[in-house]
Amino acid sequence: MNGRARTATRAVPAGTLGVVSEPPQSPLVLVSNRGPVTFDVDGGIQRGTGGLVTALTGLATHRRTTWIASAMGRGDADRSREAGGKAFNVDSPAGGSFDVRLVVSDDVAYERFYSIISNPMLWFIQHYLWDQSNAPDIRSHEVEAYEFGYKLVNEDLADAVVEEIEGERDPVVMVHDYHLYLLPRMVRERRPDAFLHHFVHIPWSQSDSWRVLPTKIRDEIYRGILANDIIGFHTRSYRRNFLQCCEDLLDLEVDHKQGVVRIDDREVWVRAYPLPIDANATRELSRRARVREFEDELLRRRREHLILRVDRADLSKNVLRGFSAFDLFLEQHPEFVERVTFMAQLMPSRTDVPEYSEYLEKIEALVAVVNHRHGTPDWMPIQLKLRDDVEEAMAAYRHYDVHIVNAMFDGMNLVAKEGPIVNERDGVSILSENTGAHEELGQDALSVNPFDVQALANAIHRALTMGADERRHRIEGLREVITHRGPGDWIDDQLADVRRKAAGATADDELTVVESDG
Ligand code: F6P
């Protein structure tokens, strides 16, 4: 079995969604790489990880839904075989019961799908991470990974979708993320009547970044995702980029105002649905007894100021520049020596991908350098925690003075929304202008250009010396925006568009909706 189980990431807290009004009557099928639960070899059951799982959990418990996902390890594969490869009902440890279908793909194919094409290839393109004078080289290794890995796993999941909707009238299929760009077309060919909706949880990068891919692969990917009826993104700017890509790369007819791509006599609606967090569930989670234990320890050891970051150890999160900025800050403001700690809780991620394991090594090396340069016998400037522990993260959220999210590019970044909800010290948020969350939170956070190390060092200083009134004002502003909408609204907006389009609305009917959004 490949290493997919080991590359799991932190789950944002499980929550209950608000009421989803008037769900369409047709059966709903969700399909994503990661599923809502995952099984240990001894039959134990864990909640699936990632923001995507959190976003969809409430929907799946609210209405009749079958959630199709890849089997993540031997435990999942065993459980899937036990169910004859079909859907089975399961109670999630995070609450709720699901119909789940876990699809077992060939191990080698899955490795190629996950660790070569999805990550790093597509992830790096969509986060502008390729250092193009050096990488990537597209050779038979990559082309074969696409043909016999990415395509194959998409086919396996598409087969499962087609089987699940067999005999159903007007089925609705909600596809998730960059792992499954080919699947919609595969389903569409066999079920032209299906309503296909695809939400992309990561940025959609500008057209030239896609030129890394050979034309044939690129075209297949675009034609794959354009087989959907609706494509959703977190922000208006990703929606704009997607529309522009369709024009630039495929020469398709695009209506930017209406947010529509016309292809093969069909209209594809392209929409922005920013993902909210479940603020109540986040607060509840932060009150757990185990969180208290971490808090006691943290309070016992804390210095005057605490700077915090909580991230997956992903290159896009820009961890190294964060530490370099702290290094610079300490050099330029020695008065803070021994008075501040930078706590970084980083979850190792995708460690089977060489770029990710190398990144972890670089992180550890830089922390050692900064700690050696500025540390004293009883003070370690950076406290690095390489683990996935949501309760430990919650304890730190409660007590930070400064929260840093300096991702180079990030689809949304839910951490930026969780921190201010839980924090008790009127902590200041420093937020990269290239995160999806910045479209909503930019006004009350301290915005930074994530590449400008000096600007981040200055922002750290400004945050640590900010007056109490301004801190209070800013965090209240953040909370107002964060709590304005919940995950139920997010799902409602998408299902409302599904209903409108399925009922025959055209982009012309929708003009006002899109314009107010953009
Ligand atoms: O944002 C994209 C996403 O798939 C999220 O759902 C998840 O939090 C993250 O990436 C984790 O990725 P992986 O499934 O590779 O661990």
Walkthrough of the structure:
With 518 residues, the chain is α/β, with parallel strands linked by helices. It is built from 18 helices and 18 strands. The strands form three sheets. It has a ten-stranded mixed β-sheet with strand order 5-6-4-1-7-8-9-12-11-10, with helices on both faces. Strand 11 and strand 12 form a beta hairpin. The longest helix is centred in the first third of the chain and has 25 residues. It starts with 27 loop residues before the first strand and ends with a helix.
Defining key terms:
single chain, Rossmann fold, globular, binds 6-O-phosphono-beta-D-fructofuranose, disordered N terminus, 2 domains, six-stranded parallel beta sheet, ten-stranded mixed beta sheet, alpha/beta, about 525 residues
Topology (elements, then pairings):
Blueprint: E1 28-32, E2 37-39, E3 45-47, H1 51-62, E4 65-70, H2 74-82, E5 88-91, E6 97-103, H3 107-126, H4 140-164, E7 172-176, H5 183-190, E8 195-199, H6 215-225, E9 230-233, H7 236-250, E10 253-255, E11 260-263, E12 266-272, H8 279-286, H9 289-301, E13 305-312, H10 319-332, E14 340-347, H11 354-374, E15 382-386, H12 390-399, E16 402-405, H13 415-422, E17 428-432, H14 438-441, E18 446-448, H15 453-464, H16 468-484, H17 487-502, H18 507-517
Bound molecules: 6-O-phosphono-beta-D-fructofuranose.
